[in-house]
Amino acid sequence: MAQSTEEVSYLEAISQALDEEMARDERVFLMGEDIGMYGGAFKITEGFLQKYGEWRVLDTPLAESGFVGAAIGAAMMGLRPVVEMQFADFISCAFDQITEVAAKNHYRWGAAVPMVIRAPFGGGVHGGPFHSECPEGWFFHSPGLKLVAPSTPYDAKGLLKAAIRDPNPVIYFEHKFLYRRIKSTLPQEDFVVPLGKADVKRIGNDISVITYGAMVHLALEAAQSLAHEGIDLEVVDLRTLMPLDKETIYASVRKTSKAILLHEDNKTGGVGAEIAALLAEECFDCLDGPVIRIAPPDTPVPFSTPLEEFFLPKTSDIIAAARKLATY
Amino acid sequence: MDVAVIAKEIKREDLLRMYDYLRLTRAVEDRITALYRQGRIVGGVYTSYGMEAIAVGYASALERDDVIAPFHRDMGAFLIRGFTPGEVLAQYLGKRVGPSKGKDGNVHMGDLRRGVFGFVSHLADNLPVAAGAALAFKMRGESRVVFTGTGDGGSSRGDFHEAMNFAAVRRLPVVFFCNNNQYAYSTPLRLQMAIPNVVDRAKAYGMPGEIVDGNDVAEVYLAAKHAIAKARAGEGPSFLEFKTMRMHGHSEHDPAKYVPRELLEEWKKKDPILKAEQLLKQLGYGEEAYFHEVADRVKKEVEAGVEFAEQSPLPEGPEVLEGVFAMSADSH
After folding, report:
1. Is A131 assigned a catalytic role?
2. Is the complex ipTM higher than 0.85?
3. What pTM was computed for the model?
4. Dihedral (CA of B309, B16, B178, B64) sign
5. Is B324 in Cβ contact with A106 (below 8 Å)?
């Protein structure tokens, strides 16, 4: 595929995906707080109101449960809503609609709910306890939802397009820290990144680091410095958390025999805990060391710089864990 | 005004059809209650005994392409939308041929093809969903309407208010109703809200509202027709408070001793079937012999449904794994 000549940021990639899907399919429309005239809290939908009008770019009342519910109803009637949670933290207000209605409707009475909820998540931006949360664990435990968390502009665009075309409710966790920090060129043609497929972002032989979102970049940094020490990390980017690509995880760990699970969500009951349990069930025979989890402590995300720095996983945590694992 | 005078606006055949459905609803639910007492139905059994006129009235006022997101005591709406007594009983018995294939029980059934949204126990959860369906109709310029509601208890939920506000802001073609049956499980209205009428809640959203005798099928039908016509004409949402009384417990396991007996005695005189019969007699549309004939006919229909449901197989255990994710939404 031909590549664009200009580099596109993670944020622009999301915006492009929305624009292209809205142009491609008139059933696709957007709902959320301040997404119209203001263009969204992060300006992802800037210019969309002028281009698509107030019935395809709906500024909603400040009522997450209400507008997520409305998106469910519109989806069941044949539209393809994409809802913006201004911050992923506010998704708790819509928790009931997502887990009880969207997630269960197809299972209970056969009604598909083709909708997407965009949830800007993650820390490192001094947002404090209500603007930095990683709430994927809440939904990871709720059957009927698909969850994606891209780490690159390519994945951000391709996964969002795939999510919009999927017949199920998809929560799309976009990382705020990556919005303007990560850039790359993108194919000029239409493309999707299929849901449910992990991507090996770095091939390595010694230790598998299984991660997603902003943490992928930390793992890649750690891999670069460890290469000088002769420790060769493989970085598995899950991209989709649900359904989880178990085959890619198992294949990587069977090759390296060692695993580090890295995420920004709290440690207890997180995605890493589930993968650790899966590795114990399925890959016990090929493990040459303990499965190590690197994740923030079980506290809300703090505000003050030293507290947030302490809270978030760091490259040095990965390096230390890898060195320890290498000695087994 | 005398109901018999207003009811002349309703076609004779429509009124007689509503009477049929009042009878059918009562017969289906009486049979479900009996099966529950025999221990043949597991799980909750929620009936609309004494409240049948609400769902029968509003569902009769809607067009085929309109959508209903019902309250859990709206059996009449399911029946009018073509859920057969056999399917309903199969649902209660957890059979594979039931609308939810055994995945869910009792009134938790729905079918997009028949324009009925599956009920959610979290009361009022379907109100924003219903508003969203109305949003789709408005965006596509279709002249379809959505009818949705909850009880007096459900009107305390945030989703009730969020749905009404959203629908009002966007002037969506949706009619909200409240089945005010005076008790939310055991909680009386006075502990639910500090206002006497649920309809007053609509005012806060700039939505017109009306109090309707929920035990009078003709009044319900006419009020619903009026609200539906306004919604279809692009005049936005409205609210109907159907005043009624829950004559059984919250569920059939609940003897409802918290309800004063005198109150029930008083409401027994306003039974919707009785009221409909009085009206039909007054209008000269039917008399005792006819009423017996209808009662016999629906009883036979329900017995055939019981037989169908009981003879149908239960799902196999591994079927639990089916249908978590949809493979397509093409039918939408």
Report:
1. yes
2. yes
3. 0.97
4. positive
5. yes
